[in-house]
Amino acid sequence: MAMRPVAGSAPTVADGRFIEELVARAQTEGLQLTGEGGLLRQLTKRFLESALEGGMTDRLGCDRHDVVG
């Protein structure tokens, strides 16, 4: 399955400035970067959920909560 860019979407993961800003903000707010409840774990969880949701949408042809019929 090919990834399709979305117009006006958030910065890409490859955008180093975005990542630096995210890490700096986490440190400023006192959020751990790794470990239980850390930034890395939260990002990984959200990434996987989003990828799985997108895969199901592509496969089924409708969003999760769409009323079919």
UniProtKB/TrEMBL annotation:
Name the UniProt record assigns to this protein: Transposase
Organism annotation: Streptomyces virginiae (Streptomyces cinnamonensis)
